[in-house]
Write a structure and sequence with these properties.
By secondary structure, the protein is mainly alpha-helical. It is 52% helix and 5% strand. It contains seven helices and two strands; from the N terminus they run H-H-H-E-E-H-H-H-H. A hairpin with a 5-residue loop joins strand 1 and strand 2.
């Protein structure tokens, strides 16, 4: 997996907020239950998102978390960097130190091309548009459940 579990959960939670509650506060418990994510882990993720200025939080009975800016102004790239750093967009896919043009790994050339495409995708995609597609296309943000 190219993205950490922290980043995947953060993206899912932010897309839920943008799709369901673009304004106002939503409790972490609600997000945790709706997306079937660990409540304590989600709390740590939102601490990072708050520190990066992507989300804001408020304590109290009507508190919770909310987007700090409009979802149109938050790119998926920004979320990935806030939660995982820039490694996905800069580092060797085989995690070899010093991999580059002078001393490439066997996957370097192919990975650089793919990595650049992934970065472009994440830079162009914002929470608003991705959330809109999620609603309109009925995309899922949770694991499949057996029935």
């Amino acid at each position: 997996m190219l993205l950490s579990k922290r980043c995947v959960y953060g993206l899912r939670a932010l897309l839920y907020l943008a799709a369901e509650r673009p304004e106002g506060y939503t409790s972490l418990r609600d997000i945790s239950e709706r997306l079937d994510l660990s409540f304590p882990f989600l709390g740590k993720i939102f601490q990072q998102l708050n520190e990066s200025g992507i989300t804001a939080s408020q304590r109290g009975p009507s508190g919770g978390v909310s987007l700090a800016r409009s979802p149109e102004r938050v790119t998926l790239y920004e979320v990935v960097v806030a939660l995982d750093g820039e490694g996905l967009f800069t580092e060797c896919v085989l995690d070899l130190p010093g991999c580059g043009e002078e001393k490439p790994c066997p996957l370097h050339e192919a990975w650089v091309r793919q990595r650049d495409q992934i970065e472009l995708l994440f830079r162009r995609a914002n929470l608003a548009e991705t959330a809109r597609l999620t609603r309109e296309q009925n995309y899922r943000l949770t694991a499949l459940t057996e029935t």
